[in-house]
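Hi,

I'm pasting everything inline rather than attaching a file, because the server keeps stripping attachments. The sequence lines come first, and each chain or strand is labelled.
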Amino acid sequence: MQKYFIPKEKLKLGIIDTDDAFHITSVMRCHIGDEILVSDCENTYNCKITSLKNDLVTFEIMYQEIGNKELPVFVSIFQGYPKGDKMEEIIKHGVELGAYEFYPTIMKRSVFKLEEKKKESKLARFNKISKEAAEQSFRQYVPQVCDIPYLKTIDFSKYDKKILCFEEAYKNGDLYNFKTIISSLKKDDKIAIVIGPEGGIDKTEYDYLLSLGFIPASLGPRILRTETAVFYCLSSISYEMELKKSE
Amino acid sequence: MQKYFIPKEKLKLGIIDTDDAFHITSVMRCHIGDEILVSDCENTYNCKITSLKNDLVTFEIMYQEIGNKELPVFVSIFQGYPKGDKMEEIIKHGVELGAYEFYPTIMKRSVFKLEEKKKESKLARFNKISKEAAEQSFRQYVPQVCDIPYLKTIDFSKYDKKILCFEEAYKNGDLYNFKTIISSLKKDDKIAIVIGPEGGIDKTEYDYLLSLGFIPASLGPRILRTETAVFYCLSSISYEMELKKSE
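And the predicted assembly:
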């Protein structure tokens, strides 16, 4: 069943408009009486469609969905701005894997040049991808792509745990730091994960982040592409915290 | 340092030709005296370039690289053939994350239609992507994309553990099966992981796989895209088996 995130006031009125209405009528080809999931980012409801037009769908709420779909911790991804459209891939899969928010971060080795006037449209596109991925993966919350900051402008003080993904850590013998941190997380912890762009983290960035309390951590013996590192981190957190083993 | 996989006989002769020679000269723009890693899929050597042409590079071996970069278990991915070029994305990141081999498998809900005459060229392309990803991630072994089989023609009898990724398992209360299996793996175990295409596993395929001893397993409360499921499985296996925590 397809899920749609809509503003609270439209949920109260029982209406879906704009792109989502088009999606229901023309992409999903729904009929009157079909069921959809509708969420205001707080609660999710199982709803029945009562009328259909390309730009306006009305529905009535049948019952509230229960069960938590969110990671038990808040993971903020500070992704060194990568080449091409990799940032979109990172957001798409990162949302499915439970990230709380994303900061495409301009680091020394980012090839990307920020044009201020294009920033808003970039962010709008990123947030559209996030919303679609949240609907597809049945998230209760739409992760935000908050800003495209420079590394030095970010305030990391609110985070409980700070991880710097650092492939060189493996050469220095680290296979401990990542799992030690992840296995010690508690519900509602706020975690900052910094991942360098393709060329990695610059030495001055490394020193700066360590001075802020970041722990450099290896993600195993193989060298991961920048986008793969995000998937590894989030999958591991889910595996550690959401899955259980039978005794 | 860039890594190249070459046949054993060329390693003995100290030569690299074809695409790899072009890559060294024209993409990496190496010079005489630069170091590269060369592997015959068994051992990896740190080598120095002794001469350079676009179609022939010669090198001498300096010393053998040590340290294992391979997952301690053999993970075979039976991926329901997905739409578009997702299979390439799965191979690319799956190789980085340590998969042992891939079978792009034609399942009932695969939209893909196999044209026999295109099979060889598809497999050649998949294996090229695998080789490049293995070089990039410093694997010691190039995972093979072995065949494009139909599900019913596959012999699963050699596997120690058989996992069917199945999102419906979560609705039935399963958050246990995946972690219970992964946390019980032993070194050199052979694991078959079956993942459905976009539309998921068909009921008859589900029954068939269960009759072969497959365990249906949820990968957490969020619905993952077919390509994301592979990343989740492999990352979790690495996290469980390769990373350690300090006591």
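The two ends of chain B are 34 Å apart (CA to CA).

If the labels don't parse on your end, tell me and I'll reformat.
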